Amino acid sequence: MAENTAAKSTVTALKPKDYKSAIKPVWCPGCGDFSVLNAITKALAWLQLPQQDVALISGIGCSSRIAAYTSTYGFHGVHGRALALAAGLKAARNDLTVLVAGGDGDGLSIGGNHFIHACRRNMDLTYILMDNEVYGMTKGQASPTTAPDWTNSKLTPEGTGIRCFKPAALALTSGASFIARGFTGDPNELARMIVAGIEHKGFSFIHALSTCPTFRPEHQEWKHQVHKLDTEKTDDPVVAIQRIQADDGMSTGIMYQREMPDFHPGGKQVDAEVALFEGEFVL
Ligand SMILES: Cc1ncc(C[n+]2csc(CCOP(=O)(O)OP(=O)(O)O)c2C)c(N)n1
Ligand code: SF4
């Protein structure tokens, strides 16, 4: 009994900083991605998840650098392929909490096909899309969430003229079972959403409005435009799509959560296949 008490008292709670790596982010000052990093590390500390039980998978872009800045397992992957990599990892290691993160270009442009199929597959992944409505890393081209009349890019000086995706609507109609929207100006709310997304069994989509002061300085106005959802979340997709379509795109909160079977291709068989595959590469 006395031994147990002594053992318990030596357990140290993990703090948000314990989930940060020693690598210093190279993001521009004021970039919203700092806030997403803080929200993720806060969420992991709230859940007290051991670092080795978590993997953060990302693609390519400023936002996708985030994988290098945490102390969990991680993979800073290939442009647009974060969800494919994460699905493979989850199939092989169902015991891991798998987070996926990246930008609107990474996730909705080159990675758009993977996004809709990840939603439809409903694997137990938590995907945080850092939406700054621009390609930041490649110096400010329009992305699939850029408004058609945004003229401040050298490539599209008259705007794209193409209407943009509504990420939440796309996620819902593709089959995601958890949909939330957060804002980098409120990292605590974002952290609560990430906790709820991790706890949800199935594909959780968190649309994070993330500011890019370098290429979209006008988004500093977002802090005056975002507002909390004025309804409770629903589990009815028809109600959810009506609300999302009527929404101004600036409301934050959990919009939709529905219990649905999550897809997993079956542990033992996958383990055996991974072992076979690895065998091919033994030197
Ligand atoms: C196959 C491939 N195509 C294009 C690129 C160039 N590229 C790198 S990042 C990027 C877009 C990044 O935009 P986004 O995902 O929105 O992230 P942000 O930098 O804004 O955070 C592009 C087109 C690449 N690295 N690989
Ligand atoms: S260019 Fe934009 S998205 Fe990239 S680090 Fe700078 S502020 Fe962040």
Structure description:
This protein has helices at residues 2-9, 33-47, 82-92, 104-110, 112-121, 167-174, 187-199, 222-225, 237-246, 267-280, and strands at 54-58, 73-76, 97-103, 126-131, 178-183, 204-209, 227-228, 251-257. The chain has 283 residues and is an alpha/beta fold. Strands 2-1-3-4-6-5-8-7 form an 8-stranded mixed sheet, sandwiched between helices. The longest helix is centred in the first third of the chain and has 15 residues, at 33-47. The N and C termini lie far apart (51 Å). The model is unreliable at 1-7 (pLDDT under 50). Bound molecules: thiamine diphosphate (TPP) and iron/sulfur cluster. Thiamine diphosphate is lined by residues 60-63, 79, 102-106, 110, 130, 132, 134-138, 143.
Topology (SSEs and partners):
Blueprint: H1 2-9, H2 33-47, E1 54-58, E2 73-76, H3 82-92, E3 97-103, H4 104-110, H5 112-121, E4 126-131, H6 167-174, E5 178-183, H7 187-199, E6 204-209, H8 222-225, E7 227-228, H9 237-246, E8 251-257, H10 267-280
Parallel strand pairs: 1-2, 1-3, 3-4, 4-6, 5-6, 7-8
Antiparallel strand pairs: 5-8
Helix pairs in contact: 2-7, 4-5, 5-6, 6-9
The site of iron/sulfur cluster has 11 residues, from loops.
Q: Which keywords apply here?
A:
binds iron/sulfur cluster, disordered N terminus, 283 residues, binds thiamine diphosphate
